[in-house]
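User: Okay, second chain of the day. Same drill as before: sequence in, structure tokens out.
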Amino acid sequence: GILHEDLRLLLETSMPAKKKKALLGVADAKIGAAILEELGYQCQTGGVVAEILRGIRLHFHALVKGLTAQSASKAQLGLGHSYSRAKVKFNVNRVDNMIIQSISLLDQLDKDINTFSMRVREWYGYHFPELIKIVSENYTYCRLAKFIGNRKELSEESLEGLEEIVMDSAKAQAILEASRSSMGMDISPLDLINIESFSSRVISLSEYRKGLQEYLRSKMSQVAPSLSALIGEVVGARLISHAGSLTNLAKYPASTVQILGAEKALFRALKTRGNTPKYGLIFHSTFIGRAAAKNKGRISRYLANKCTIASRIDCFSEVPTSVFGDKLREQVEERLAFYETGEPPRKNLEVMKEAVVEASEVVAEVKRKQEKREKKKKKREKEKMREKRRLEALAAAAENSVLETEENNIEPKKKKKKKQQQELEAESEQEVEPEENGLEEEALPKKKRKLMVEADQEEKKKKKKKKEKARDSEEE
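Assistant: Same drill. Structure tokens below.
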């Protein structure tokens, strides 16, 4: 009943009334079937049952002894959280938010690097204008500007360094010759320092962009391997970013995926009653570029269809693999060949059967590897526990040995004290005189002996004091 009411609370958020009733009816039927199967009780689901369950849930704390309304609400909240966790199954490795952020940063970096490179070209072009014609790539130009500095200092010795940067001996020689007969203005050392520092910043940004692209590839292979195998990591990431998430992309129909990114053109065409766009973001894939002008629309529609299938497989499969993406890519290649040469492609059913067989093998292999990793992890944990216990045992043994040594050091001191006490007792026994009848005193207990010895000592002290007083009085 509580589970049913929690389901009802979830449905009561924002949903049409007809849909709510239908879903609650399905839930009632499923719960009734489960009770009949497990316990053998015939269950009834209907309008009255729902109201009875609602009443039971409302007064549940009054019906059960020892249950307060506050604890019941806490239990319901915990049940709702656990139910949500079980449904969501959050996996850290399959987070598409990181892909959205990284592709946005990649696009921004492309713009910034292009702007900064143009600034370096313009700035360093005052001093060495011929270099722009020889080297066209921005990254290489920035590296050369940093390496050359003052063109007058270039010589045959710096030819090796130029070859390393340009990766072409003819270009390096052309740069050296151009530096000797350049028409550029002279430049001060302070200006050169600023140009070099700015070009080093542009170089570092370009290198960071390469690292970011590798990170994006690794994330796409984890989150959407089929989509990245079909259309490429960058285009796939752009589709996910534009849709908002991989789940949203999987929910889109193929017609929406086809024009995703061309919304402005679509609404303009609808407003002016012109031709709607044939492709959006998927235009950046290699397939549409390779197709003939008359076949671009057809191939974009086919590619959007396959992208939708790949995104759904990636979104809802437990162990994501790139097998389906590779097979879908082969299908697009066959369709391209069909448009060009007329060679009939394979049927979709055959290709998907092959993909399912291969994917099952790959998934089995991945599961084996995961099991091996888990076993190794358990072994390491056991070894760590053993090592910990061994260290604890060694520490305990060391403490015991320290205590034993302390006891051994204390024992001789005790023995010495005992010996001293025995010697004192022997001396006191010698000092004690025999009784008047001439017979020796019987053996007394230790405490009595001590008292006797102390009394004798006090008497001796008193006698000494009396003698000293008598001497003092005589002297006076």
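The two ends are 116 Å apart (CA to CA).

User: Thanks, on to the next one.
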